[in-house]
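Look over what follows to help learners.
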Amino acid sequence: MDAACLPGAQPQASPPTLPADIPFRPGRTGVTLGRTMPRPYWKGAISFGLVNVPVALYPAVRRLDLKAHLYHDADGGRIREKRVCEQDGQEVPWKHIVKGFEVSKNQVVTLTPEELRAADPERDRTIGIEEFVRLEEIDPLQIDQSYYVTPDERSAKGYGLLVQALARAEEVAIARVVLSTKQHLCMVRSVDGRLQLTTLVWADEVVEAPEVAKTPTGTRELQMAEQLVHSMTGKFEPTKFKDEHRGRVEALIRKKAKGQTIAPVKEAQPGRVVDLARALEQSLAAAKHAPTQRARARPARARRRSTPTRARARR
């Protein structure tokens, strides 16, 4: 038996295929990571009034979550899932599988792919604008997935016109679009001279907030809490926040791939806050040792005071 299949043994590390300056991403190669221009996710047109602007959508976000497969710890074999019928215990091929919806405890309605297509939205390849609203009117809870919108070679003028019109009006467009076989509510907005499309969840998909009991707070505690917020205020710089957990997992993978052992770590116990006022005092004392945060806060607040309210809301 090959050593890679012995119980507890680890598969031999593959020869490195990425330059040292490219982050380690299990399951991804230099070819896929090095591709700078992705293929368009969707092609169609923006429609408002009698104007049609041919465009393409490109994903604006890429998820860097590590993808792990399942393996048998005894021999290293890959775990595969099978579609098994609970009635006869036999594996069922895809051609004999239909989708079903449980309408009651004893009744299931099954629909064939042909029947489901009858409910598919019309694929007119159009981002149909229905109205224009202020960005601040959209609840952040409804924001879903974002895409870059690029013009077709023949639509640069119409694209630029919509970019400028939205920017001057300080409004966003509310539209509907069909991606794959699902209709989405979306907003189209002007950002730095280009259009961005963000899909929104439907209003009935937003879960009602749970009830939270109102607890009275002391004046001194509130003042210290406000001071703590003030001392920690600064300009938001997304690039300074890193996914530390993903980095630690990548380091563990590299370490074990070299044959090194991973020492178990004791789980830290969360500390109990016994005295809220004392905890605030300690937090304020710690914040005083970070003057750079307060230094960033002053120019940021100065800029906000000099920026019109409507412009701040649009950003």
Summary: Residues 1-22, 29-35, 300-315 have pLDDT under 50 and may be disordered. The CA atoms of residues 83 and 93 lie 8 Å apart. The chain is about 25% helix and 20% strand. Strands lie at 42-48, 51-59, 99-104, 107-111, 126-133, 143-151, 172-179, 182-191, 194-200.
